[in-house]
């Protein structure tokens, strides 16, 4: 149930979207109609009623769903919980679709602005978020339909990172080192994914980025660094100067970065550069970029045994090649980090505050009390507060209260929150906008922020595992099947 109504600020934002939308042929719904339609259809189209009866219901065919024209881009938020995954409306936080799943799951944006990948068992499973944009001359048309957990999967042992770059999606399997890449524009709820398969030298907890020309960036099997191969699979450049490599991110100039246990490794398309922290052990396992900033936000672990929590973050400037540290004065973990609309660093710490930090100086700009104090659970799979940002809205989970908060980052205030009958764990969001390199005739429009052509998994939390895939608890969970976190949760 929603506990607070949307503020006037949010309603004004919604109205602006309608005013900026292209007129159709009289079929465009008003804002109120758009809010009501998806929810009204949830009973018949969510694939399950949340009570374990989904197997008794007739499965909804993707093509049977009704499509609605929207006044602007519509955010959809996917949330995992014990026994299921839900897709929410990004403005109202209403549950639009709720689906039963088994076992521990993770969720990441697929990279096309519409779909998610659910990491489920030994596969990546496609979720249609039900919100997308279609380029139309000098502007875009926007549409919505009911969310759907599809039967489309990419199968393999120990599915790990999800990355998108240059219009290409890449899935990495830790269990065999396979890299599955595909054209993001072909993702569809009714079509099997036609992926190109390549592989690293050996299985490991790693990541790969495939480009449109077939060249690729991949981590080394011993996790000592990374290399770049051309379209023929020939090695062009390599570096072994990044022990325990993890946490891939892309910068606005299309250079790539990965975290190391003693700094960050950059690749500019031709050569590698190592940025050192100056500490013998100072693991940067997850990196968070911003579309218009040369600075990466990274977590910063100083205790190799992981007995002491992280309390500082790293601000990695790829232009000056400097690493600035910012003290949060409160513990945080791998799901705590995000970037604000102006590139500011955001940290949802255990003191219950959202800390806002200047990306260049590391100085504290502001903070907002979002929830009560909390303590990170011992196992990385257990729910803990997580944050995801779309434009100037932050979505923050509070598992202890079974609540999700929406924070307006411009005014730094909570503008909406909803309480659920499940405990939210992982969270991901898609904005429903066309993406460069994915949508035909992409030109962008005034509604769209510079989306860029790279989406990592959030790369945020996901360290799924260390090389031997042992499920240690790694604070940064790097979803590391062991000890890395992903780094974005990344994935």
UniProtKB/TrEMBL annotation:
Question: What domain of life?
Answer: Bacteria
Claim: Signal is one of the keywords in the record: yes
Record keywords: Thylakoid included? no
Q: Where is the composition biased (Basic and acidic residues)?
A: 60-69
Q: Which PROSITE patterns match?
A: PROKAR_LIPOPROTEIN
> Which protein are we looking at?
Secreted protein
Give the originating organism: Nesterenkonia xinjiangensis
Check the UniProt entry and state the signal peptide residues, or none. 1-21
| Compositionally biased spans, kind Acidic residues | 30-59, 438-461, 469-491
* Keywords, ordered alphabetically: Signal
Region: Disordered, residue numbers:
22-76, 427-491
Q: Which Gene3D superfamilies match?
A: YVTN repeat-like/Quinoprotein amine dehydrogenase (2.130.10.10)
């Amino acid at each position: 149930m929603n506990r607070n109504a949307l503020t006037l600020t949010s309603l004004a934002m919604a109205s602006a979207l309608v005013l900026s939308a292209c007129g159709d042929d009289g079929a465009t719904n008003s804002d109120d109609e758009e809010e009501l339609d998806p929810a009204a259809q949830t009973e018949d189209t969510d694939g399950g009623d949340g009570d374990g009866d989904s197997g008794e219901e007739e499965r909804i065919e993707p093509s049977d769903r009704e499509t609605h024209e929207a006044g602007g881009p519509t955010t959809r938020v996917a949330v995992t919980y014990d026994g299921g995954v839900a897709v929410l409306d990004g403005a109202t936080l209403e549950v639009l679709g709720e689906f039963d799943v088994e076992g521990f799951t993770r969720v990441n944006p697929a990279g096309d602005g519409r779909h998610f990948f659910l990491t489920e068992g030994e596969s990546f499973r496609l979720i249609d978020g039900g919100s997308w944009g279609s380029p139309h001359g000098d502007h875009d048309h926007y549409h919505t339909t009911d969310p759907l957990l599809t039967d489309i999967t990419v199968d393999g042992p120990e599915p790990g990172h999800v990355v998108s770059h240059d219009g290409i999606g890449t899935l990495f399997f830790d269990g065999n080192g396979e890299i599955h890449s595909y054209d993001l524009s072909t993702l569809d709820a009714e079509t099997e994914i036609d992926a190109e398969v390549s592989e690293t030298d050996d299985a490991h907890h790693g990541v790969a980025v495939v480009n449109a020309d077939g060249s690729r960036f991949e981590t080394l099997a011993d996790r000592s660094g990374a290399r770049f191969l051309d379209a023929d699979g020939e090695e062009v450049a390599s570096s072994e100067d990044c022990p325990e490599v993890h946490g891939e991110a892309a910068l606005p100039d299309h250079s790539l970065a990965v975290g190391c246990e003693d700094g960050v490794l950059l690749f500019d398309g031709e050569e590698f550069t190592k940025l050192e922290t100056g500490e013998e052990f100072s693991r940067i396992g997850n990196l968070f970029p911003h579309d218009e900033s040369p600075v990466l936000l990274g977590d910063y672990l100083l205790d190799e045994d992981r007995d002491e929590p992280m309390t500082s973050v790293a601000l990695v400037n790829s232009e000056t090649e400097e690493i600035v540290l910012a003290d949060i004065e409160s513990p945080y973990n791998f799901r705590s980090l995000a970037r604000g609309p102006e590139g500011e660093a955001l940290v949802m710490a255990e003191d219950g505050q959202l800390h806002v930090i200047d990306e260049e100086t590391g100085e504290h700009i502001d903070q907002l009390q979002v929830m009560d104090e909390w303590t990170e659970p011992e196992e990385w799979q257990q729910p803990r507060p997580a944050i995801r940002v779309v434009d100037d809205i932050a979505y923050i989970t509070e598992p202890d209260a079974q609540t999700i908060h929406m924070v307006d980052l411009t005014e730094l205030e909570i503008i909406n929150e909803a309480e659920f009958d499940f405990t939210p764990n992982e969270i991901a969001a898609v904005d429903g906008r066309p993406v460069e390199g994915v949508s035909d005739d992409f030109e962008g429009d005034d509604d769209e922020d510079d989306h860029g052509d790279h989406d990592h998994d959030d790369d945020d939390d996901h360290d799924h595992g260390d090389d031997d895939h042992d499920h240690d608890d790694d604070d940064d969970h790097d979803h590391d099947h062991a000890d890395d976190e992903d780094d974005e949760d990344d994935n």
